[in-house]
Amino acid sequence: MLDKLFFYLDFPFVRYAIIVGTLISLCSSLLGVTLVLKRYSYIGDGLSHVAFGALAIAAVLKVTNNMLIILPVTIVVAILLLCGGKDARIKGDAAIAMVSAGALAIGYLLMNIFSSSANIAGDVCTTLFGSMSILTLKPTDVYLCVTLSAIVLVTFVLFYHKIFAITFDENFARATGVNVNFFNLLIAIIIAAIIVLAMNLVGALLVSALVVFPALSAMRVFKSFFTVTVAAATISVICSLTGIIAAILAGTPVGSTIVAADIVAFLICFIASTLRNRRM
């Protein structure tokens, strides 16, 4: 098995997949802790459905670079959901559920009405559940992911204390002089960009797993915001690497294999937490 793994690692596209998968998992887990604590854990799923709808629109318009439509649309919706939550007539989870179902339905409808492919079911399944498209990445895709990951990491480190403050109490953060609206806007833009990139890794329906599972796993074992964030990032990276390598060796879908690894990690953390509580 090791010989087979080293054989595949000689190919650039495999190395690209591992780099991109690791970086996307790292970034999504960092923001995932904040989103889970702010009760927006379902937003990853909602935004991925929005990206699916935007992808269908780009296909109908025959746009060569579909990122020109997918990314702006997803960012705008993320801003509306994250920044307009308290003042909106339709609150939090209801707004996400409405946008999620609506975008998914519209995307599938457009792909059926204006499809230029003979295999609609295959195209939809590939987009929703992911495929081996992560193994067809170009160097430009890798550079884009590395750049975005660097921006996310630098932003998180520089504004760690402010992100911590708005995560737990926005009113207190505002009273201490933190520009809450700006940081909510920043989080919305970053999470939207990560969701769009992650669609190539795990598919639209499985994106939220990258956001939610590592954070929930870490919360079962650790208590402080810092340790949970570090543990979530570590768990996410390990699961991503394990999933990608297992998928390459076994020929299974990359996205589903990564999510399966996240589930195993959560079960391990759950069992460890249960045993620790019983000893106490």
What would you note in describing this structure?
By secondary structure, the protein is mostly helical. It has one domain (1-274): ABC transporter involved in vitamin B12 uptake, BtuC (Orthogonal Bundle). It contains 13 helices and no strands. The termini are far apart. The mean pLDDT is 80.
Please name the defining characteristics of this protein:
mainly alpha; ABC transporter involved in vitamin B12 uptake, BtuC; membrane; transmembrane helix; ABC_TroCD; transport; transmembrane
The CATH superfamily name is ABC transporter involved in vitamin B12 uptake, BtuC
Which structural class should the secondary elements be placed in?
Answer: mainly alpha
Radius of gyration: 19 Å
- Shape, principal axes of CA atoms: globular
Strand content: under 5%
CATH topology: ABC transporter involved in vitamin B12 uptake, BtuC
Unreliable parts = none
Element pattern in H and E: HHHHHHHHHHHHH
- In whole angstroms, how far apart are the ends? 42 Å
Tally of structural domains: 1
Largest sheet: none
Summarize the structure.
The protein is mainly α and 280 residues long.
